[in-house]
Design a protein that fits this description.
The complex is a heterodimer. Chain A folds into four domains: 92 residues, no CATH class; 145 residues, Double Stranded RNA Binding Domain; 41 residues; 247 residues, no CATH class. Chain A contains 13 helices and 24 strands. In chain A, strands 4, 6, 10, 11, 12, 21 and 22 form a seven-stranded antiparallel beta sheet that branches. In chain A, strands 13, 14, 15, 18, 19 and 20 form a six-stranded antiparallel beta sheet that branches. Chain A is elongated, with a radius of gyration of 39 Å. Chain A starts with a helix and ends in a 13-residue tail after the last helix. Chain B is mainly α. Chain B has one domain. In chain B, 69% of the residues lie in helices and 0% in strands. Chain B contains ten helices and no strands. In chain B, α4 packs antiparallel against α5. About 12% of the residues of chain B have low confidence. Classes of the chains: A alpha+beta, B mainly alpha. Chains A and B meet through α1, α4, β8, β11 and β22 of A and α2, α8 and α9 of B. Bound molecules: protoporphyrin IX containing FE (HEM). Protoporphyrin IX containing FE sits at the interface of chains A and B.
């Protein structure tokens, strides 16, 4: 990160910036590009783009989104004629695939690549090179201390530096000893390279996650299907009620497995007061076959517990009632017989029912109304469902005859009956009244148009079927990212320098300094530990090694300054290479 | 099949919550008293010191301040990019404007009201914990299945995390803030979000509820702490600037609060932990979404806001490494992040339609 910060330092230097600006006209195309690249990959831009991304994600939660709710979007545009269209132009109903949102995250990821690659190279070099040269004045380092080895110990400066090197190596530092035979031998040591590795892994993995998501979008598919008890779904394109292929989907990808819904059970809460009647368990017993010739298998499909089959996952996402009806037409023939999926409308499975009977003769028939699992009539005469279970099932319908308009091939919503061109037969406001049926009862339509009987009730489930080949990779990269993040935040990258010198009186003076790169609140503790280890090595009393001993006293700054002075005075700091890298 | 419901346990739980809120309230008063009293005492000491003003005292004090400061600040790299809000010179100039230890270690001096306050908070947290436990027993499952439970359990975790941090660091200056917030959460839970014990809807019956939500609550509790610290950091930075410029110190109690730089550094460390927690929240949420709805990411409102929070805190971590963005600006990001957390919990849960609409209301 210091690498980064250093770069930043340059670019944020007002003089340098002014110069760069002044030099702009002369830059030429390549220069301009280079300049733009530097800007794009700067930490400041990354921060700006990150914050922009956060802001840009918000509208997607404020406006209905097309991928999730296309019909709500259409309605919203209708309801807000003044600005609904404008929002659409701004792609506010498709925020996450909009040009502007994509631009932000693509720029961010380009910036990321531009950031990661040079850093990886720099870090690779840093890992191979020796620790930086020993600063001239160690006392300027954030953690600094001295030790004195008494003359009678007989450890000269060169031995001291060798044993210090051994101590630090053992502690996981990479150590280089300099000038070991000289007057002022020193060593430089560094550890914690995994911090930067973690950072690089983290950022690279984010790219991995993005690519995995893109792969899922390209090669995946998803679809929906409603299954009434007894129905079988076969995994072919026609088997789906709704199908959303990925960009590169090919129908050959579909493995023709089958799923039959044998029975669907709901457990209702009959215990707690507040939630009485709330469903607490959905359980679908299904029979699956991997392919038409494979042996049948019994499985249970539940919420939060999908079935995997043929490379797809099958999810239980909805359920409801399907009243079974038999309709005879005016000619007395059975024109329709079977379950009708009722669409949930309100509390306690209050559901709407639409029945279209195009095969009825001489006139086509249509029915629209409601299904109530436990019918009640309120004091105002409004019927409602009092419980989600089948205590008093009731079908209330209006009926129509005429041309249903199904023959011209235009697709229609099966849950809606367009009554505009139909003639009503039964309705509350007509003489014949509405139709009210309990299971087992039947009703004869006026004018000899036919009969309808309510034979019983089945349950249906809605299943979502998904195939996402990018998913596993996304997970792997996400896990890698977290691992990298933890390393990056919790490994400390530190440098230690030690310099020794032998006094005229035979004492060996040792001074050491520590510097962290990046956040490191435990540097002081590390200094303490290093001090203990060195003292142990030379059998010194760590606490009483001289006036400069760094204690956790608030007045250490002065001690340090004094220490520096005395050190320079008595031990003398040699005229080594130029000062520390850290320039302050 | 879920376990049975035990309404009596549920009633005990509510009683415990009430008692806990009461105990916290007394603790809150004690914390406030501590701030008031200590700042008065400190002012008196200062006055005496000023009367016996020794011209040599100033630089010494300044040096001491700077040292203890930079010590925690970890020249440790932070020195390379000094905080823009609290430059050492501002703090030096402020002289005695800070008495708190930058390390946030306990000082030798005893603060009786603060001790009472902490003891009461511990008591409150114990009762509160009993409330959470009885709620769990009453419902026969983890106590975080609706807004009421998120809030009561979340408040407990916030209090517990605060007390745990107190073991190692003297963050008692945050007491009024944290305990105040805990009280607000408990009251809001009981007044606005009260829900009797009940079974989970099938959508929530998953072990991912345990994993995902517990980490979310824990991270949020940590974000709560850092929010408080960042807010104080802003106040402190302003105050120190005023004092340094020779203005009058209107916020005497802020002497008990460590310097802006110390606050910034500690909140950075806590935010780093919380950010990892939030990353897990996001990931586990995605895994759960995959299990429940068949896609791991679908930009559902709740997902959008969880993502926004994650990005804001990622921005915060970046800001701390960007020149000119440390200090005050980073603190603002930390605050904005927390406001998003609150928004995600309250407004999004209740008023936005999405797959996550199981607030239990
Ligand atoms: C996809 C968007 C990005 C996200 C979510 C993200 C997130 C993070 C996070 C959470 C950290 C803190 C943990 C750590 O130190 O590893 C971090 C650090 C860092 N990021 Fe990013 N980042 C993104 C893009 C970038 C870009 C584009 C750059 C380069 C310009 C960048 C450069 C850095 C650097 C240098 C650090 C180390 C900061 C330090 O010294 O603490 N990041 N990033």
């Amino acid at each position: 990160m210091s690498e980064r910060v250093n770069v930043d330092k340059k670019s944020s230097d007002p003089v340098a910036e002014a110069k760069a600006e002044a030099a702009l006209p002369a830059l030429g195309l390549m220069g301009m590009l280079r300049w733009a690249w530097t800007q794009l990959t700067s930490m400041r831009t990354a921060l700006f783009l990150l914050l922009l991304l956060a802001v840009a994600a918000v509208p997607g939660s404020l406006f209905p989104q097309r991928p999730a709710n296309p019909s709500v979007v259409t309605q919203y545009i209708k309801d807000n004629p003044d600005y609904g269209k404008l929002l659409d132009t701004l792609q506010l109903y498709d925020v996450y695939s909009s040009a502007w949102f994509s631009a932000i995250y693509l720029l961010l990821f380009i910036s990321l690549i531009g950031c990661v690659v040079p850093r990886a190279i720099a870090h690779y070099k840093a890992m191979r090179s020796q620790p930086p040269r020993t600063p001239k004045r160690l006392s300027r380092l954030p953690e600094y201390g001295t030790l004195v080895i008494p003359a009678d110990a007989g450890i000269p400066a060169s031995d001291a530096i060798t044993s210090a090197a051994a101590v630090l190596k053992k502690r996981g530092y990479r150590v280089e000893v300099r000038d070991s035979g000289g007057e002022r031998p020193s060593l430089g040591a560094e550890r914690g390279f995994t911090k930067e590795v973690g950072n690089l892994v983290f950022h690279t993995s984010l790219i991995g996650v993005l690519v995995s998501v893109a792969i899922g979008g390209l090669f995946g598919y998803s679809g929906q299907r409603i299954l009434v008890e007894g129905d079988t779904f076969v995994n072919t394109l026609v088997g789906y009620d709704q199908f959303t292929p990925g960009t590169n989907f090919e129908s050959g990808q579909l493995q023709p497995y089958s799923v039959q819904l044998d029975k669907f059970d709901i457990t209702f809460d009959r215990e707690s007061e507040g939630k009485f009647g709330q469903p607490i368990d959905f359980s679908a017993a299904v029979t699956t076959k991997e392919n038409p010739d494979a042996p049948a298998q019994k499985e249970i499909l539940k919420v939060n517990d999908p079935i995997t089959l043929g490379g797809t996952s099958i999810y239980l996402t909805g359920n409801g009632y399907a009243p079974v009806v038999t309709i005879r037409d005016g000619d007395g023939n059975v024109a329709m017989q079977g379950p009708v999926v009722a669409k949930l409308q309100g509390d306690n499975y209050y559901s709407s029912v639409v029945i279209k009977v195009p095969d009825a003769k001489p006139d086509q028939l249509g029915f629209a109304g409601f299904f109530l699992p436990t019918a009640f009539i309120s004091n105002e005469g409004v019927s409602f469902s009092g419980d989600p279970d089948l205590f008093n099932p009731q079908l209330t319908l209006n009926s129509y005859y005429g041309d249903l308009g199904l023959d011209d091939g235009a697709p229609q919503n099966v849950f809606e009956l367009d009554v505009q061109d139909l003639t009503p037969l039964n309705a509350r406001n007509l003489d014949a009244g509405g139709i009210t049926l309990a299971p087992g009862s039947s009703y004869t339509l006026p004018d000899g148009k036919g009969t309808i009987s309510f034979d019983g009730v089945k349950r249906y489930i809605g299943v979502d079927i998904h195939h996402n080949p990018g998913q596993l990779y996304a997970l792997i990269f996400a896990l890698l990212a977290v691992a990298g993040l933890i390393l990056s935040l919790y490994v400390n990258r530190r440098r230690v320098w030690v310099r020794t010198g032998t006094h005229a009186d035979g004492r060996t003076m040792v001074e050491y300094g520590l510097l962290a790169r990046g956040e490191d609140h435990r540097l002081a503790a590390e200094a303490e530990a290093v001090r203990k280890l060195l003292s142990g090595e030379w059998q010194l009393d760590a606490e009483a090694a001289g006036p400069e001993a760094p204690q956790q006293t608030p007045s250490r700054e002065q001690d340090n300054d004094l220490g520096a002075a005395t050190t320079t005075g008595s031990v003398t700091t040699p005229a080594g290479p130029t000062g520390p890298e850290k320039d302050q | 099949m879920p376990y049975g419901i035990n309404e009596t346990m549920g009633q005990y739980s509510e009683l415990f919550m009430l008692l806990a809120a009461g105990t916290y309230t007394v603790a809150f008063i004690a914390f406030a008293w501590d701030l008031a009293k200590s700042s008065k005492a400190l002012r008196a000491i200062d006055l005496k010191a000023a009367q016996a003003e020794d011209p040599a005292r100033m630089p010494v004090g300044a040096g001491a301040g700077a040292r203890s400061e930079s010590h925690l600040a970890g020249p440790a790299g932070r020195a390379e990019r000094p905080s823009s809000s609290a430059s050492p010179s501002a703090e030096n100039g402020a002289g005695g404007a800070i008495t708190a230890d930058g390390d946030m270690k306990y000082a030798a001096e005893r603060r009786a009201p603060a001790r009472v306050a902490v003891a009461l908070t511990v008591l409150g947290a114990l009762i509160h914990g009993a409330g959470v436990l009885t709620r769990a027993l009453g419902a026969g499952r983890v106590p975080w299945g609706n807004m009421y439970e998120f809030l009561t359990t979340g408040a407990f975790v916030a209090a517990a995390v605060f007390l745990l941090v107190l073991i190692r660091r003297d963050l008692r200056f945050l007491g009024t803030f944290v305990v105040g917030l805990v009280i607000i959460m408990l009251v809001a839970a009981s007044v606005a979000y009260w829900t009797p014990v009940g079974h989970l809807v099938p959508a929530l019956q998953s072990y991912w509820l345990i994993i995902h939500v517990s980490i979310a609550v824990l991270s949020s509790a940590l974000f709560t702490l850092t929010f408080a610290m960042s807010a104080l950091q802003l106040v402190q930075a302003r105050r120190l600037k005023t004092v340094a410029a020779g203005g009058t110190d209107k916020l005497g109690f802020m002497r008990l609060v460590p310097s802006a730089l110390s606050l910034e550094n500690l909140s950075y460390r806590i935010n780093a932990i919380a950010f990892i927690g939030w990353t897990f929240t996001l990931m586990f949420g995605a895994i759960w979404a995959e299990k429940a709805w068949g896609r791991f990411w679908g930009w559902d409102t709740k997902e959008v806001w969880t993502f926004v929070i994650w990005v804001v805190y990622a921005g915060y971590l970046h800001a701390r490494a960007t020149r000119g963005w440390t200090g005050t600006r980073a603190a603002w990001l930390s605050i904005v992040g927390y406001l998003c957390v609150i928004f995600n919990f309250t407004i999004v849960n209740q008023f936005f339609n999405g797959l996550h609409s199981y607030s239990g209301l």
